[in-house]
Amino acid sequence: MLIHVLSLAMLGVTRAILTTTTARSPMFGTGYMAYQILIHTVFGGFGGLLLAASIACLRRREWGRVWLIRYAIAYPIALVLEVGGSIVLMIPTMTKMMATATKNPAASPMPPSVLAGIMVGTQVLMLVVLLILPVCILVFLRKREVRAVFA
Fold first, then answer.
1. In this structure, what DSSP letter does residue 28 have?
2. Whole-angstrom Cα distance, residue 69 to residue 82?
3. pTM score, two decimals?
4. How many whole angstroms separate alpha carbon 140 and alpha carbon 147?
5. DSSP characters for 110-139?
6. Most buried of 17, 19, 35, 99 (most Cβ within 10 A)?
7. How far apart (Å, rounded) are the C-alpha atoms in residues 59 and 71?
8. What are phi and psi of 106, to 5 degrees?
């Protein structure tokens, strides 16, 4: 839930960045910024859905259980798309940033292959960690005993 709240906060930060000269530099294409706004909006919406459905579950409303199960199915799909988009858009962006940093003699950039490996590894690790909650929701809320409570 905290991740979704932070996603909404990052939406505000991303919009603020769009107005700066940094966002208009060649390093940040308009596709990258549009992608960031889309992702933060989608995951912020997931946060609102999770909050509403969780409260409904606490009140033992059947629609809360149904929407949590729908969340647990849709969220991993969105996560996989987000990780794929991040890998496709971020690696070229970070490579451009590293190429710009090499013009600075004080900078010691890492090779692009190392940077790509770190980014892909980070995204995959994030995916694994963030899939824990949806899996737990699917396992728990589909049990016969739990369904009987909501019936």
1. S
2. 20
3. 0.72
4. 9
5. PPHHHHHHHHHHHHHHHHHHHTHHHHHHHH
6. 35
7. 18
8. -80, -15
In terms of Cα–Cα distance, which of 46, 58, 106, 108 is closest to 82?
46
pLDDT tens-place string over residues 18-47: 555 454 555 556 677 778 888 889 999 999
Among residues 33, 37, 50, which one has the least CA distance to residue 8? 37
Number of domains the chain contains? 1
- Amino acid 7: pLDDT: 56
Q: What is the percent of the chain where pLDDT is above 70?
A: 72
| Contact predicate 48/40, CB 8 Å | no
| DSSP letter, residue 11 | H
Give the pLDDT of residue 21: 47
What is the maximum alpha-carbon separation in the chain? 68
